[in-house]
Amino acid sequence: MSVKNAMTADFLRSAYGGESMAHMRYLIWGQTAEKNGFPNIGRLFKAVSNAEWVHAKNHFEVLKQQMGDSSVTAGGVFGLTDIVENLQGAINGEDHEIKQMYPVYLENAKFQQEKDAERSFNFALNAEKQHAQLFREAQALAKQNKDMGEEKIYVCPVCGYTVKGEVPEKCPICGAEKQSFKEF
Ligand SMILES: [Fe+2]
Ligand SMILES: [Fe+2]
């Protein structure tokens, strides 16, 4: 895996920064949800946190030959209040990635013929769509002071695709086998 162009490398670093923060933020929001009586929404946060780790790792691996220091500018959502607001923060972060960040990063990678970056951005963009949907469902329940159900949540270790209940035979985004999915 490699990257040749400075602009694509910058976007990979920024996306790595954004995903790293999302990973940490979801662990914090997840722990808070658990403490406040929403263990299953807490579990959703943990699962999605793992998916963001997959995205960060993918971006990092594309940059593996770019050894050296870098200052990273990346968007991140802050705030730690109640469950409904924390979920709104999560929805806002995912929507930003789906509508603004990844479409631009992806088009740039295509323009610069950066196949590895294109793959990594494409995986993240598509997985974030599921995340936004899952957080919206969780927020609708939280608004009625209800937790999510007990269904297991599964994360694809290759692309971060996240699904509740049943895992498809093959990941719809990357084609990974059902058996490889991580269960939460
Ligand atoms: Fe996400
Ligand atoms: Fe996948």
TrEMBL record:
Q: Which Pfam families match?
A: Rubrerythrin, RUBY_RBDX
Q: Which Gene3D superfamilies match?
A: 1.20.1260.10, 2.20.28.10
PROSITE patterns (alphabetical): FERRITIN_LIKE, RUBREDOXIN_LIKE
UniProt cross-references to CDD domains, sorted A to Z = rubredoxin_SM, Rubrerythrin
Residue ranges of the Ferritin-like diiron domain?
2-146
Give the source's domain of life in one word. Bacteria
Q: Which residues form the Rubredoxin-like domain?
A: 151-184
Keywords in alphabetical order, please: Electron transport, Transport
The protein's required cofactor(s) are namely: Fe(3+)
Name this protein carries in UniProt: Rubrerythrin family protein
The species this protein belongs to is Clostridium moutaii
